[in-house]
């Protein structure tokens, strides 16, 4: 795929060479299979082993603990919303089974997030989109994903600019009738600005005869190292599932 704007490219500093050379299609297949394998686990002990494997793999590829913690913070509020009611929803005393089930959900979620972080931070966005195209994902889906990824950053930029403008006008925040009106005005302005930008982008793409299909690079042939890298997560998660079935 043709190179996108610079801010779309992933930051690949510190990523090991063997992780960067892993062919994108096989990496995506390995990640999807590993995630489905993690979801099928039924005990916290084996889910923890899967999490340990994911952590070891991410560190071996050059990802930092700080990056992983930042990604965990994204899903942490949602995990609390799911797990806390499971633990205390049945009243007191709290049953061990409820804690175990909540821990299982928590481990599966952070394991899947770890693996997704590996997928998205060991290759460029272009490589990821190319892998989707070569796996026959509909072009319109890929186009929507790419544009959504691009405009998420623009959306956050607009929010930061509005926050800066509000602070420059001595807006201190808080909950009050006056502040709620300000929040409503900011939200409305942000929505209108987003709609205007979307219309401008649509008109620009239509003027350039864009038909919803992005051009992609030719797929790279798999080599034996790509096959080996893909086989390792396959083997590990299948082994965990098989051993778990024996012991439960």
TrEMBL record:
Chief location: membrane
Name of protein: Cobalt ECF transporter T component CbiQ
Lineage top rank: taxon: Bacteria
A GO biological process held by the record: cobalt ion transport
Keyword Cytoplasm (UniProt): no
Location of this chain's protein in the cell: Cell membrane
Residue spans crossing the bilayer: 48-68, 74-94, 101-120, 140-159, 225-243
One Pfam family linked to the record: CbiQ
Organism of this sequence: Anaerobacillus isosaccharinicus
Topology class, membrane: Multi-pass membrane protein
Family annotation (InterPro entries): ABC/ECF_trnsptr_transmembrane (IPR003339), ECF_CbiQ (IPR012809), ECF_transporter_component (IPR051611)
Keywords (A to Z) from UniProt: Cell membrane, Membrane, Transmembrane, Transmembrane helix
Gene Ontology annotations for the cellular component aspect, listed alphabetically: ATP-binding cassette (ABC) transporter complex
Cross-referenced CDD domains: EcfT
């Amino acid at each position: 795929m043709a190179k996108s704007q610079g801010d779309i490219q992933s930051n690949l500093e510190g990523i090991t060479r063997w992780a960067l050379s892993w062919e994108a299609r096989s990496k995506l297949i390995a990640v999807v299979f590993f995630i489905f394998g993690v979801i099928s686990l039924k005990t916290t002990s084996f889910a923890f082993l899967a999490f340990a494997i994911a952590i070891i793999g991410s560190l071996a590829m050059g990802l930092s603990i700080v990056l992983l913690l930042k990604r965990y913070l994204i899903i942490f509020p949602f995990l609390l919303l799911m797990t806390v009611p499971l633990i205390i929803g049945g009243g007191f005393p709290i049953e061990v089974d409820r804690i175990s089930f909540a821990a299982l959900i928590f481990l599966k979620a952070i394991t899947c997030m770890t693996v997704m972080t590996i997928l998205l931070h060991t290759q460029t966005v272009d490589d990821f989109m190319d892998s989707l195209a070569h796996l026959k994902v509909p072009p319109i889906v890929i186009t929507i994903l790419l544009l959504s990824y691009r405009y998420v950053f623009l959306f956050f930029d607009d929010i930061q600019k509005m926050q800066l403008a509000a602070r420059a006008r001595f807006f201190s925040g808080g909950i009050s009738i006056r502040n709620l009106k300000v929040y409503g005005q900011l939200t409305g302005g942000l929505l209108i600005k987003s709609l205007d930008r979307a219309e401008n982008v649509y008109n620009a793409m239509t003027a350039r005869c864009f038909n919803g299909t992005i051009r992609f690079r030719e797929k790279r042939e798999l080599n034996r190292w790509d096959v080996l890298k893909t086989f390792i997560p396959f083997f590990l998660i299948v082994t965990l599932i098989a051993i778990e079935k024996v012991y439960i």
